[in-house]
Input
Amino acid sequence: MNPEPSQTKVRWSEVMLFLGTTFVLTYLLDLAIWLSAGLNPGPALGILLQLQMLLPAFSAIFFGIFVFKESPLWQLRAHRELPRWFYYYFLVYAAIYVLLGGAVISSTHPEVTTMAAGAAQLLTVLGLILLLVVRIKCGKETSARAGLSRGRPRYWLLFGAGFILFYGLQTALNYLFHLGAAVDVVQLLIQIAVGQKEQFQATGSTNLLLLTAVQTVLLASAPSETTPDNARE
Output
């Protein structure tokens, strides 16, 4: 089925509102990072950078649900469909991340950062569980209409391989042209081990770390159901 002309028209005012809000929030967070945590690697910086990655989706979901009346997310809220709760959760999730980031910035106690990292991991796993519940309850068609479909398996493989190739090529070019500083692999492994230990102390269980790893693998390469093949159907 070919889309209607009204569905393919770009609403530039909405695009600019989304981009403007996303960039303003991102640069405000970057300013807060620069004035507080700095660019020194560590758990505090990791939490703040994770918050930064949530900002584009936060802006898109917020405007889609509450501002853009032509958005499918607006229709979810208007018709009180079940998938709307996942998007509500994401907005709350991002807001709590802001509070965690503020706590990390304002506190000088290392245990605050450790507790914040554990809380962030727990919230992420809860979001994954909610997503799975919504998909099971709604079924394939409703989930696809809500933008929560799992996509086609070949695209998971394609996008996952693309991530690996991209970072592999990036590393090879950096080495070839002597860009940046060489990474101390031993020190890097030590930092990763310390970070995992802090998360374990915060959560008290390796099961939560295992669930987080599964969540990362599942969602990092997750394609959308809206693919060229589907667009022609």
Notes: The CA atoms of residues 65 and 83 lie 12 Å apart.
